[in-house]
Amino acid sequence: MSPAEANKCRGKRKRDADFLDALRDMDEANRAVLQGGQEQRDQYTQLLLESQAEEREMRRQELAFLQSEAEETRQLQRDFQDGFLHVLGQLAQSLSQRNSHTAPPRD
């Protein structure tokens, strides 16, 4: 091998090393970008899960409130109906007593 060829080989090796260094740098930069993207996706996923959990809790509380309101409404209806039937019973009793105290009609 001539000295020119030897210099050429050493230069090629130097270029190969520079090229490999550049590839490594690019690979590291790509990995950093991918890692950052993964971290952002992880954060987004965590926020989404937290948001869904909060929404489920709000729905659970709303359902409990609506069930409570419905039960209260049913109780008010029962109370009203009981009171109405009591008054109606008193009216019927009063009319019955009134009719029994009146004299029978004369022919």
Question: What would you say this structure looks like, in words?
Answer:
The relative contact order is 0.03. With 107 residues, the chain is mainly α. It has one helix and no strands. The protein is 93% helix and 0% strand.
Layout of helices and strands:
Blueprint: H1 3-101
| SS element count, helices | 1
Shape: rod-shaped
**Total strands:** 0
Helix content: over 70%
Give the overall average pLDDT.
Answer: 89
How far apart the termini lie comes to: 155 Å
Radius of gyration: 46 Å
- Helices and strands, in N-to-C order? H
- Structural class by SSE content: mainly alpha
Strand residue percentage: under 5%
Low-confidence stretches: none
Q: Give the biggest beta sheet.
A: none
Q: Can you give me a brief rundown of this structure?
A:
It is built from 1 helix and no strands. It has 107 residues and is an all-alpha fold.
Keywords:
mainly alpha; rod-shaped; 107 residues
